[in-house]
Predict the 3D structure of the following.
Amino acid sequence: MLAYTYIERGRFELKEKPVPQIKDARDAIVRVTLGSICTSDLHIKHGSVPRAVPGITVGHEMVGIVEQVGAEVRNVKPGDRVTVNVETFCGECFFCKHGYVNNCEDPDGGWALGCRIDGGQAEYVRVPHADNGLNRIPDNVTDEQALFTGDILATGFWAARISEITSDDTVMIIGAGPTGICTLLCAMLHKPRRIIVCEKSDERIRFVRSHYPDVLVTKPEDAEAFVRANSSHGGADRVIEVAGADDTFELAWRCARPNAIVTVVALYDKPQTLPLPDMYGKNLTFKTGGVDGCDCDEILRLISEGHIDTTPLITHSYPLNEIEEAYRTFENRLDGVIKVAITERQRP
């Protein structure tokens, strides 16, 4: 099968690999029918994910059809259409029982697919702990509608949930990339008083204004003054930092009102500074870390009922055998790209 493979820092390569096999009774083999590229894949390529293992197949955003299951798999069966969770989790350890599945103590726990074990930018993928890592797609939901459930939508849903958004809040979201838009959609479910999106790209600002006209938009250089002018207590009640740029962490806490919650979703290329003397007296609560992707059934229900629609994010599509061109487009933000869909291998 074709599989896009992490060779070394700065180099991925499309290679032929064997079709994966069941290794554990809790595994499933999924034929990938639609995938995507995540910014986290670029972090691996750039060497910003030290735990990533050279030689693995990359990719962790995908949907597909179950081909085979291990003897202990109960929740899915061959023929089921499924989303694949970015997190691998056993469901039985201390962290899983408390809902912190990103910190699962299993050797394959947390972000494993496409990082420490073979992922899904391939024709097939082996999913450990399939009863937890796979969610059946409702019949009225297309692959395109379900594509982002297991990663960026799960991230946005988790970020909005732990931010404790109320109807009185001004919510600021820093970054209008794919994860930022998913976070925006999930924040909207909580019906806050207002949402402000901070974004530097003119193309992405146009996208937000076109699709979500009730959302306020500002650029980073204007953000502090804009948020103060459009909030009740000198800053945003909730700030969700999704961008991960060199200066967006500082921007997040500066735009927060005293006693606000600042939720950091972003993955940074460099260490960030926490200047406690400068923020003394703001009494901020910071919430950080990787997504705990344990709400996928709820997300799929919301998609099925028409409450979440991420299909406008898919701006480009390439077959698996043209994935290198897909990466070039996505990495360089060409042609107004937001997300690319990777379809099945195109055969002569």
Q: What stands out?
A: Residues 182 and 325 are 25 Å apart (CA to CA). The longest helix spans residues 149-162. The mean pLDDT is 95. The chain has two domains: 2-148+310-343, 155-288.
